[in-house]
Amino acid sequence: MKSELRKIWKDPRLCILLIAVVIVNAVGFYLHCTKDLGGYTLSDIQPLYAQADTLTQTQAELDEKLEQAILSMDDKEISALQTQQRRNQGALDRILQAKNYPQHRQDLIMESEIKIMLGLFGAEDSFEVRSLRRGIAVYENLEGIAPQAVFLGSAEVLVNYGFTDWLLLVFVVTAGLILLTQEKGLGLLNLTQPTKFGPNRLYWRRFGAAVVLLGIGFLAMYGSNGMIAGVLFGFENLSAPVQALFGFANCPWAISVGEMLAAMLGLKFLWALVCLSVVFLICAGTGSGAVAVVKLAACAVGAVWLENSNDLWLGTLSLSHFGDAGQFFREPVYLNSFGYPVDPLATAV
Known about the structure:
- The structure is a single chain.
- This protein is mainly α.
- The protein has 15 helices and two strands.
- A hairpin with a 2-residue loop joins strand 1 (335-337) and strand 2 (340-342).
């Protein structure tokens, strides 16, 4: 395996490419963490959590000041007040999601019960009604969860940044093209054919080397993301229920934010391994880099087509869909298996 990895490390242009990918990812993630969210950034709203009890009143006072500024035609004051309002509202949206979660959970249960009672979704044994009843049971099991309003900026930026997933594929494709396609094109793989075990051991060694390269890229890229998020926002509140994380109020799991992030990383690495397997299958069968790239591009187009299809089964089994692991934790969506609801996460895994 070491000899296979040396073929990559001894190529300076290839090493520069992989290092550049890691740097581009880090820069892109930093820009994502500091981007404008409509007049404010996540760093701007972090201090407002200390004023959570008075933010609603502050917004009402700002409304009055804004009306006076509009009457006085003070454009500078109007702009400043609107910026402050947007910043406060950004914090309020996150704070109120956590504070109002118990009522929100009850509303979700009541909404499903009303739909069943009105008979809008067919008979009792229909897939839709079974899904609603399963959703009711899921949310009833979450009784007692009352998330506090805490700042979770680090987790928010990590779950909402998908560019790293696609940059990671550079490590995946590089391993296949260098270790298989290039040497097959040069005829070097033919030397292993007459040996006792044929090319089998060689392929396993190269697949192992590719997994090591993938692991290095995975740790470098997601590790740098975690370091940047930790420096900017900290990781103090990862023990909070995942329902406190902005956009995850409908999560059907009784887990913490930290547990959700760990599960996401595991799913993303599994996704990367599957992509690596697909790349190896394609690259092992051709000695032309151009042909291999065309085949990989066709697979990518097929994955995107599956993701955008109207069939939930096809969408769930798409690799491009599975790459966004955070979606499995946002809200319960079920697949129709002969009239019975099936969990899409277990199906995708």
